[in-house]
Automatic annotation (TrEMBL):
Taxonomy of the source species: Eukaryota, Metazoa, Chordata, Craniata, Vertebrata
Topology with respect to the bilayer: Multi-pass membrane protein
Main location as per UniProt: membrane
Protein name, entry field: XK-related protein
InterPro entries: XK-rel, XK-related_scramblase
TM ranges: 33-57, 158-178, 190-218, 224-243, 255-273
Family: Belongs to the XK family.
Domain of life: Eukaryota
Cellular component GO terms, alphabetical: plasma membrane
Length: 299
């Protein structure tokens, strides 16, 4: 299962990117320049994760070369590091922080699932963070846009529907893989079996799918009022995060920005940002989300 995770992540990334490209071409060929422009605009926030990836390469002591910059300009930073690989066994432990999915997958194949595979697995944390950031900044807006096109504009649109479905699956998998590796880094935690990962994927997919569908249907009926509903939810979640006194970010300005960003994420899904049991926090999140949906249906 460990070696399958980076391979599955690469496959989902390739499928989701391919469907997005098809959607862009679809709108361009049909002359729907408005939807074409909005779909292209959803690509721009993804460069934030690419910039963070380059900064992490520099922090690891690698000088960004032309090939590395081209990869990130094409938004392929999660695929290949662009850093020359050393054949020595110590490369995994010394330069593991600069790995990307293709590099880690190749290293796992070379090690044949041996004891050192666990060392490589711990280096996937930064890649999972980058994948989650890219999914939230780029895949989520694309999912909302394509879902709205399918529901309100072109219900028979095959390409937008496929693109929305793959975006939903890619976003759900990014959340699952992030949760899996954050748990795996804790002492005494083992890799989750395939069935547990599947259950987590189904849970995340269902949660995100119903939330996106509710917002899209509300936007179809009440147009821009959906921003008021989302804004109220964002404010509630942001203040709730401040009340929890999360200490992930130390600087005051960055701490406020972090709470605002995670509060925006909480419009769609829950991410645990504090150590320890999260049953109470998850219950509060679902209670607020349920009331949010009920209020939107009463309007």
């Amino acid at each position: 299962m460990r070696g399958a995770i980076p391979g599955l992540s690469l496959a989902l990334l390739a499928a989701e990117r391919g469907a997005r490209l098809c959607a862009i071409i679809h709108y361009l060929v049909r002359g729907q320049l408005g939807w074409f422009g909005l779909t292209m605009a959803c690509v721009v926030p993804g460069y934030a994760s690419q910039l963070l990836s380059i900064l992490w390469f520099r922090a690891d002591g690698h000088k960004p070369g032309c090939w590395l910059l081209v990869l990130h300009l094409l938004q392929l930073g999660l695929w290949k590091s662009g850093v020359p690989n050393s054949p020595t066994p110590g490369w995994a432990s010394h330069h593991g922080d600069s790995c990307r999915y293709w590099d880690v997958l190749r290293m796992m194949v070379e090690m044949g699932g041996g004891a050192r595979a666990g060392e490589v697995l711990t280096r996937l944390g930064d890649v999972c963070v980058l994948q989650l950031l890219e999914a939230l900044l780029q895949t989520l807006p694309h999912l909302l846009l394509q879902a709205y096109v399918v529901v309100a504009v072109d219900p028979a649109g095959f390409i937008p529907g496929v693109s929305a479905g793959l975006s939903l699956l890619s976003l759900a998998w990014a959340l699952v893989s992030y949760s899996h590796f954050t748990c795996l880094l804790k002492p005494g935690h083992l890799s989750l079996p395939a069935m547990a990962m599947l259950c987590l994927l189904l849970w995340r997919t269902g949660m995100l799918g119903t939330r996106v569908l509710a917002l899209v249907l509300f936007a179809r009926l009440y147009s821009f009022w959906v921003f008021a509903v989302a804004g109220v939810h964002w404010l509630l979640m942001s203040f709730w995060l401040v009340a929890q006194q999360t200490d992930i970010v130390a600087q005051p300005c960055r701490w406020r920005l972090f709470n605002c960003l995670v509060g925006a994420v909480y419009i769609f899904c829950y991410i645990n940002v504090r150590p320890g049991p999260s049953k109470t926090r998850v219950s509060v999140f679902y209670a607020v989300s349920t009331q949010d949906i009920q209020c939107s249906t009463w309007m």
